[in-house]
Amino acid sequence: MAHQSFESKAQIRAQIENKLALLPTLPGCYLMHNAQDEIIYVGKAKNLRNRVRSYFRGAHDTKTTKLVADIHHFEFIVTNSNKEALILEINLIQQYKPQYNIKLKEGTMYPYLKITHEKDPQLIITNQVLKDGGIYFGPFPNVYAATQTQHLLQKVYPLRRCSKQEKRACFYYHLGQCIGCCDHPVSKEEYQQQIDHIKQFFNGEVGTIKHDLKKRMQEAAEKLDFEQAASYRDLINYIETTVERQSVMSQSYNNMDVFNYYYDRGWLSIQVFLLRQGSILKRKAALYPLYGEQAPEEELTTYIARFYSEQNQLMPKAILVPSTVDQDSLSELFNIPVSTPLRGKKRAMLELCEKNAKLALDESFRLSEMRNQKTIGASQELANYLDIPQASHIESFDHSNIQGTSSVSGMVVYKDGVPDRKSYRKFKIKASQGANEFANTQEVIRRRYTRLLREEKALPDLILMDGGIVQVRAARDVIENELGLAIPVAGMIKDDHHRTASLLDGYREEIVDMDQRSQAFHLLQRIQEEVHRYAISYHRQVRSKAQYASRLDQIPGVGPKTRTKLLKQFKSLKNIQKATLEEITRLGIPRPVAQRILDDLNK
């Protein structure tokens, strides 16, 4: 149930403080709720009192401050151990999907080979790992690799390859690539023998399969079946050049997953390496903000636990993690070894994983700084050029008309140097001022800011006119003399090639000395191009509608109401031309008039 909105912040804080005093010093999970009683964050703690109190004590970074501001109340659940808290946290996050928790994103699907859980099992390729009793092998780097391996195993250790509806021996049975359940009953023991061979193959025990193939090749050669012998020879070559080479590479760390992280400035970067046959088959990366006092290694522990449950990820034979991670809980949870190598190739792989995590985070910070220079930094630089406090919220106007007809104006909005398209506005010039830029500017500025004042909405830090002294003076006249506002106004002046040339300070009525290589100047260029594009686009739309109306008005029997019906239904003259007589008469237009419309437009 949503909580009453009339509660003051002081009342909410007092309720939270009372509950903080009752928190136990035991392990467990805590759930943060917002005013709508939605769970917005779930966490775990070895000591609930210390962890939860830390959110409401001292200063925090921006992200945690935002989380805390959204907390209306919280609840907690005590557990017997840290491991129970970890499992509970995973289940709660899966159940409630809180907005502030780490969300695991599904990556690109890689193919697997699967032995189906059936009376007569098959070896198939799949992109999904399900808990359906099947036996999965993989993932493979691509479909080609999975298909090649499938074909090899079907030739050497075949299972069922035909449909269950076969009434006689299938084609693959005659080729020796189907176990033959289509021809005769196959025992459970026969299937299990083939499945055991396939498992041995994926465990790297390729000697047996290679020995079998050599034996078959010799038998085929003795029977003078050289084509079949060549086929076995090719399979042996495939094993020697591909499978055995991978097996040698993977002796020290076959089929394991490596997790590591890097933490800096409130952000956690996680890297996951999936090692198969000694190579990094797949890498997963995650970058998340941390809230409150949650330790990075604890978040990584949670991430690892959820990694296998949420993504249906196949369990490896072992997991490598940094020493700060709760290895015992994870090992007990998954029933496989979880360890921190101290030396050798495994240690090198763990360090490589950490290095990649650091590089990913460093890159993210650098990209963020670059974006800020082009946006927030450029906005502040522009404000400095105009000697105003800030230019975070900019509104820019441009007029468009042809010889004084169909006069319109477009307004674009930039917030922190980024276009806020949902705030764009279009204006039809109501007063018949033609190409009078001064009067048109006054009308649009008056309409825009009278409305903002009436609706008590936020005013911009800066108004930019696409134009020079005429537009700037007109805007200032309305802003200062009519509305009594103190919003800075400036003009964006173009050169003879219609490119941004300079900035006119509306207060001093002089050109600002700007570095045209500066981010502020580049921002001006983007704003001027965008407002011009927006105004021109709107003008074309208005002019096009006027042309449609003019053409329709010339047809006898078509008045304003009929014209409006037609344009509302068909949108354009071209669509009206393509319409049938019945489609037009369905709008309530008399048949003779409808026929006249079609005849006139299709002359």
Overview of this protein structure:
The chain has helices at 9-20, 48-54, 62-70, 82-96, 143-156, 171-174, 188-202, 207-222, 226-249, 296-310, 327-334, 344-374, 376-386, 437-454, 469-482, 519-553, 560-570, 573-578, 581-585, 591-601; strands at 28-33, 39-45, 73-78, 112-115, 123-126, 135-137, 256-264, 267-276, 279-289, 318-320, 338-339, 393-402, 405-415, 418-419, 425-428, 462-466, 489-494, 500-505, 510-512. The chain is an alpha+beta fold and 603 residues long. A hairpin with a 5-residue loop joins β1 and β2 (39-45). Strands 12, 13, 14, 15, 16, 17, 18 and 19 form an eight-stranded mixed beta sheet that branches. Strands 9-8-7-10-11 form a five-stranded mixed beta sheet.
Please mark out the parts with pLDDT under 50 across 5 or more consecutive residues, or reply none: 244-252
- The counted number of beta strands is 19
CATH architecture descriptor of the largest domain: 2-Layer Sandwich
Instruction: Give me the Rg, rounded.
Output: 36 Å
Structural class: alpha+beta
**CATH level 1 class label of the largest domain:** Alpha Beta
Domain UVR: 207-242
Domain GIY-YIG: 25-102
InterPro entries: GIY-YIG_endonuc, GIY-YIG_endonuc_sf, GIY-YIG_UvrC_Cho, RuvA_2-like, UVR_dom, UVR_dom_sf, UvrABC_protein_C, UvrC
Family: Belongs to the UvrC family.
